[in-house]
Structure formats: C-alpha cells, structure tokens
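Input for the complex:
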Amino acid sequence: MSQFLLYSLASVVLFSLSLYSFITYAHLLRKILALNVMSSAVFLLLVNVAQRNRIDHPDPIPQAMVLTGIVVAVSTTGFALALARKIYSTLGTETLPDEDDLE
Amino acid sequence: MSQETSNPRPPVRFAPVRIFAVLLTLGVAFILGQAVQGLSEEPGGLTGEVAENVETSGVEHPVTAVLLNFRAYDTFLEVGVLLLAVLGVLAVRREDGLTSAREMRGSRLNEDPMLEWLVRLLAPVMVLAGGYLLWLGTSAPGGAFHAGSMLAAAGVILRMAGHPSIAIVRTGLLRLALLLGFIAFLITAFGTLLFGGALLQLPETGAGLVILAIELAVTVSIAFTLVALFVGGQSVPADETDEAA
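Predicted:
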C-alpha cells in the first residue's frame, strides 16, 4: 500500500468515525468536536494530495485550501460554542431539548 | 418525560435509528473509500504553473501567492465567513466589548506578581512576533492569518489575566477593527473591477504593495475576530446579561 493510499484511507476512516459520532451523541460539545475531526480528515486528504503533486515543493493550492478551511472551521467552532453556551444558559441542558444519545 | 441531564446516556429506546446511523456511516465510508482509491498516484495539479507565475504575483512564497493573488477570491470569502461568525457571536452574547467593568474588578493581576510579570513580558513580544510573521509571509510560510492568530493569542492572554489594556478597544473601535479586513478586500475588488481588470486581478506592478496592505487590514481583523470569538464562548455571569459593556 503506497503512502498516498494509506493516508487517503486514513482520512476516510477518520471522517466516517466522526460522522457516526456526530449523529449518535447528543451532547453539543461532542457534536462540535466531531465536526472538527471531520474537517481535520478532509485537511489530511488535501495535504496528502499536495504531497503527491510535489515537484520541488508541495503543491501550494491544496495547502491554501487547507489554510482557508482551518479558518472556516475555527469560525464555525467559535460560533457553535457561543450558541451552545447560550443554549445552556437559557435552557439548562447541554444537549438539544428532548434529545438523547443513540447508543 | 423528565430532563435527562443527570444521566446523559439513557438506555436505547429506538434501535432502528441506531442501525440507520451505523449503516449510514458504513455507506459513507464505502463510497468515500471507492472515490479515494480512484485517485491517481501520479503527480498532477498545478504546481508547475504556480511556480512559473510566482514572480508576477508580487510575493516570493508560492502559498502566499496562491492565497492572496491567484485565489484571492477564496480568501475574500474566507474573511467574510470570519465576519459572519463574529457577528453571530456578538448577537448571541449581547455584549459589545471585549470585556466589562465587572470582569476588570475581579482581575487576578493585582494578586499574582508572577502573572503580571509574565503578561507584561509576553504581550509585547507576541505583538512583535505577529508583525514579523506578517512581513515574513512574502518569502516564507507566514502572512496575514498566522500573524492574526499570534496577535489573537496575545489578546487572549491579556483577557485571561484580566489586564486592563484590553478594555481600551470599546464598541465603536472594535466594530471598525472587525470590519477592516473585509472592507480592504471590498475596496480592492471594486478597484480591480473599475480599472479594467477581472475581479481581484492585481496589477503586476505594485501587486506586492497591494497584498501587504490587504494583509495588514486582514491581520488586524483576524486578531480582533478571534479574540471576540473566544470571549463569546465564555460564560456570562447571570447578573451581567443585562449590563452594558
């Protein structure tokens, strides 16, 4: 198995596991963490492609995409945390109302 | 049905939904796995084209050239996303500044000389390092986002220590700082459209200066945005929700 395929499959596994976690756990913080791991999986794939395209240096375009993606992920996480904080202070639950874990 | 906050993992009542979740995950994994195996292992992409055109872009480092010249539109929208996120956080939090009078009264700086010394040492050094990272972006990994993150870290340290200097940036100045990056990009976009080029097609002469100016504005914006995001996620004491900043 080549390095490229190994990292690509690792990215797929990471994404799927965090997708499962996102669906099944009710705690908002776990959902936000799962979202972050999903984006990290995508970044892994992009950086893998950048390394594949290497001539003298890795391909700069996937790297720029990852930089943009990290910033978007940080913005999303910041807003989601503020919303989660507000939900907790208003409703008193750290999950969405009437929601339980699926396992 | 009572709120289950004391028992976060109650017994499963609805097994079909759990099976659906497992099947969905396996399905997604299978489809993505097939897609990923179809990726060619030969080098492809635009590495060569970018390397040839870097000299015309105004900077030396290829990633900075891609971010701020060749794909400046993506960076423009990225700054917009940051602005949207911070607008959402400010709306949810209902507080306009980066700190409040109550938090300043409870500052731990007065009790802890080690903390005070550390903050007084670290904050200016981090600002300096941020400025250096901004300048470094032309020839090495660096640029607006790295510098903005470093400045935001300095701001977070000041906020966590309760240093009064962070209260200087009040409502109006904070809003201007948050908007600065997006406004800089907007002006550049309109300028390039008005003077005959395509959207965000920087002129070959002076591209470096334009990029530096945009990066400066974006750095300031990112620093204040990240600090505002951090402050927005912190808990607001119950008796403070109606108090103006």
